[in-house]
Design goal:
The protein has 14 helices and no strands. It is mainly α. The chain has 2 domains: 246 residues, no CATH class; 105 residues. Helix 3 packs parallel to helix 6. The radius of gyration is 23 Å and the shape is globular.
């Protein structure tokens, strides 16, 4: 998200190095998240409001252009027929369709935040089902609906991979001012996504520290109840990742590599969630029966989702750029394994001390 923000700024400043707005964004989000949890919620509210209003406006404009048969300067007439015209479906063959799974999985990273934020929600039993049930509606409206409008107005052949399709559509129909506004919206949208990721990562690090699966250093809370050390560690990782723009100045190449690596890691996380759910169903069926909001066909759907994650992993090996990320991911898992063995050793030592009646230092 931070990398792509640098690319969005190049719409206004073509000669500006992408790393400059990227690092400014990192600094700004760090300060906002260090203040209070309320500041995160306030920031997300305005980011989300801008995004929702803009997409609804975009959909209304798209519907108007389609209904009036608008013809762009390049001679393309807006029509729903573009959605089904020759080449619109699988324009780059079945391999192109498979390649789309990587960015599709990446696009949906963040839905797990519905569960992550439960601990800081006043009434999770009421708000969580409502939030979860609204996800399919939002996908149909904001993803599928927007995609239909883009293809109908511009035709799939006119979509530029080097520019936001929302911005590109307004550029094609001769509305540069609207394109500028939409670029502002997609920039704030990327900031919103980055902000959510920062929030989730810092809370996960804090939770790991509380459970003694991460150094106790990450348990420290500020006066505003913000896990400050976890947050700063997360931001440090982001700075290291964003520094890749010095090595790979092409924003799209850097974005593809990092989004692919993120996809690999999030699939591992999703896989662990599913495995944990299956273990929960086996070990505590009585607790599951008490749940007021159960996942339909939970066990079957878990295995089906695990199979899908394996399928996407195989798909990532088919393209050069995504394959790079797939090859790099074992380094991360190797680091996790070393950390796990270290933690297991510490636990064994602690158990031995307790068993033998020795004093242990306060952690």
């Amino acid at each position: 998200d931070i990398i792509v923000i640098g690319g969005y700024f190049q719409f206004w400043f073509p000669h500006l190095s992408a790393w400059i707005p990227a690092f400014i964004t990192v600094s700004t989000l760090t300060i906002l998240n260090l203040l209070t949890v309320k500041m995160f919620g306030e920031t997300e509210f305005w980011f989300a409001l801008i995004k929702i209003v803009a997409i609804i406006t975009f959909l209304l404009v798209g519907i108007y252009l389609i209904s009036t048969g608008f013809t762009s300067p390049n001679g393309v007439k807006a029509s729903l027929s573009h959605v089904l015209e020759a080449g619109s479906i699988f324009p780059h063959g079945f391999s192109g369709f498979l390649a789309g799974f990587q960015i599709a999985v990446f696009a949906f990273i963040g839905v797990e935040l519905v569960g992550t934020t439960a601990a800081e929600t006043k009434d999770p039993s009421k708000t969580l089902p409502k939030a979860i049930n609204s996800i399919p509606v939002r996908i149909l409206l904001f993803y599928v609906g927007a995609l239909i409008c883009i293809i109908s107005v511009t035709s799939w052949a006119q979509v530029s991979p080097s520019q936001s399709p929302f911005v590109h559509m307004f550029t094609l129909i001769g509305l540069p001012i609207a394109a500028t506004l939409v670029n502002f919206v997609v920039t704030t949208s990327a900031m919103s996504s980055a902000n959510s990721g920062i929030f989730a990562t810092s809370r996960m690090m804090y939770g790991l520290a509380v459970e003694r699966d991460a150094p106790k250093y990450f348990k420290k809370l500020s006066k505003g109840k913000v896990p400050v050390n976890s947050l700063l560690f997360s931001m440090g990782c982001i700075v290291i990742g964003t520094s890749m723009l010095f090595i790979i100045p092409n924003v799209m190449t850097a974005f593809t590599i990092f989004s692919s690596l993120t996809t690999v890691l999030i699939m591992f996380v999703y896989g662990m969630m599913l495995v944990s759910y299956l273990a929960y169903r086996r070990k505590a069926p009585h607790l599951h029966e008490k749940s007021v909001y159960k996942m339909p066909a939970g066990i079957f759907m878990s295995w089906l989702c695990l199979a899908f994650l394996v399928f996407v992993t195989v798909v990532l090996s088919l393209d050069h750029d995504t394959r790079i990320a797939l090859y790099c991911s074992p380094l991360w898992f190797g680091g996790l394994y070393i950390a796990y063995k270290y933690r297991s050793k510490k636990d064994a030592e602690r158990s031995w001390i307790l068993k033998n009646g020795k004093r242990i230092d306060r952690e």
